[in-house]
Amino acid sequence: MLLLWLVTLGWAFSFSLIGVYLSGQVDDYVSVFIRTLLAVLLFAPLLARARPGLGLAIRLAAIGAVQIGLMYLFLFHAFAHLTVPELLLFTTLTPLYVTLIDERILGRRPLPAAWWLAAGLAVAGAMVIRFAGIGSDVLTGFLLIQGANLCFAFGQVWYKRTRLPAALSQVQVFGFFFLGGVLVSGVALVLFGDLGRMPATSVQWGVLLWLGLGASGLGYLGWNIGARMVNTGQLAAMNNMLIPAGIVVNVLIWNRDADWPRLIIGGGIIVLAVWLAGRVRR
């Protein structure tokens, strides 16, 4: 559980850094490709010695292609159709997708009712924090965000259920996860990217280094390892903990305004959801 909390904190900082230093200045597809490529380079020395077998290597690459490759394609296209409050509101459904995929698609047995309740509470808590008026003509953006949510949720559960040989550590083979992601982001860059909007300052390159090596490289490794150590209800609820964490970081570092009563109440509901899920075993 500690790993999920630590990664949530790191990702909370990352959202603010993207918003301040990259968004609108560096092409989104360029940013995604660079950060994914850096993550591959981070694990390259281990990949050179890893022998996971062709089947496992392809499976890990496929998980990465879905969880970060396709997910980012849906996400960045959605920015053209939604305001930021609308986008954040629509991402709150991810805990329900995690629970649904684990039980109905990749699972074999019904999940405890308390885990479904925890997922529902996590959604409710996030909506308390982020709910705002919804503008017109948002259906396309809503569908794109649900595509991103489903990809991220499916990747988490798929990795959680992947059997790894006892002789291999997750760190040794995780580079294959990013190989899948860099393949998809590379294709997206060729098809949709604007190479005229490359990073131009040392600050932008520094942010991308953190995103690639820290938030993506170590972050996704930590999140997916943590996902294998908790139950599905806890994992589902933790997906929405990033919303209050990101807002707190934005307020403390960049002095942005926040609706503190809603933030405290909504954050408390999500913490309750994580606690409830941890109290119930399958």
How helical, in percent, are the residues?
over 70%
Count of distinct strands:
0
- Strand portion: under 5%
Rg, rounded, reads 18 Å
Q: What is the overall silhouette?
A: globular
Terminal CA distance: 17 Å
Mean pLDDT: 86
User: In terms of per-residue confidence, which ranges show pLDDT below 50 for 5 or more consecutive residues?
Assistant: none
* Main beta sheet strand tally, sense and closure: none
Helix-strand category = mainly alpha
Q: If helices are DSSP runs of H or I spanning 4 or more residues, what is the number of helices?
A: 13
Order of helices and strands: HHHHHHHHHHHHH
Count of individual domains: 1
Structure characteristics:
13 helices, 282 residues, mainly alpha
Describe this structure in words.
The chain has 282 residues and is mainly alpha-helical. The protein has one domain. Helix content is 76%, strand content 0%. The chain is built from 13 helices and no strands. It has helices spanning 2-22, 28-47, 54-78, 84-90, 94-105, 113-130, 139-160, 170-173, 175-192, 202-227, 232-238, 242-254, 260-279. Helix 1 (2-22) packs antiparallel against helix 10 (202-227), helix 6 (113-130) runs antiparallel to helix 13 (260-279) and helix 11 packs antiparallel against helix 13. The longest helix is centred in the C-terminal third of the chain and has 26 residues, at 202-227. The radius of gyration is 18 Å and the shape is globular.
Provide a compact summary of the structure.
The chain is mainly α.
